Amino acid sequence: MTELEKGPQGLRRGRGARERILGASQQLFREQGINHTGMDQLCAVAQVSKRTAYQHFTGKDELVTEYLRRFDPDVMPGVFDRTDLTPRERLLAAFDVPKTGPQNLTPLCPYIAASVEIHDPEHPARQQAHDYKAAVAARLAETAREAGATDPEQLGEQLALLLDGASARTRVLNADAFPTAAAIAAVLIDKAIPASAR
């Protein structure tokens, strides 16, 4: 890195600053929460000055909203866009959540975490979380319809609720709740899909 590429105190600047800020937000918001992450810490991890951060984002609220928007923009494509699975198998694959973290557990869903931490229902990040959760339920319902469920919207809502509950329970108990949720999901799916459609 040349001296011209360095900002104050030798921090990196220029190209890639926005992505570094978003990368730092993904790391820090997931590890320690939105409210416990300050802009000073975000800038230090992203290796940008505060001035640079505010050139890319008008404030932390805008950064949080963009963080959520980018987290999973295509709504679980690794599950719903798979062509190697039947619709029923895709519904169950939604519960195969990759494990991360010190105990190899799934962290709390970032959309739930943001909604818990941000109290203003009109906040754009809360709206982003709402829209995402509605999109997950819609994709589950669409897949349930493909699988032949008699009431795909109801099954989609049931499975979405089960996913959110498993995420929260995993975090609260520090124990993986997804295998139990998957077993419950299988019962719900098989009850909702007539044997002739399976």
Q: Name the quaternary structure.
A: single chain
Distance between the termini: 59 Å
Strand fraction equals: under 5%
Number of helices: 10
The biggest sheet amounts to: none
Number of strands: 0
N-to-C series of helices and strands: HHHHHHHHHH
Q: What is the gyration radius calculated from CA atoms?
A: 20 Å
Task: Write down the overall mean pLDDT.
Answer: 88
Anisotropy-based shape: elongated
List low-confidence stretches: 1-13
SS-derived structural category: mainly alpha
**Proportion of residues in helical segments:** 55-70%
List keywords for this structure.
198 residues; mainly alpha; 0% strand
Structural commentary:
- The protein is mostly helical and 198 residues long.
- It is built from ten helices and no strands.
- It has helices at 17-32, 39-46, 50-56, 60-71, 77-80, 87-93, 110-117, 124-147, 152-173, 178-192.
- Mean pLDDT is 88; it is low at 1-13.
Q: Secondary-structure map with pairings?
A:
Blueprint: H1 17-32, H2 39-46, H3 50-56, H4 60-71, H5 77-80, H6 87-93, H7 110-117, H8 124-147, H9 152-173, H10 178-192
Summarize the model shown.
The chain has 198 residues and is mainly α. Helices cover 62% and strands 0% of the residues. α9 (152-173) runs antiparallel to α10.
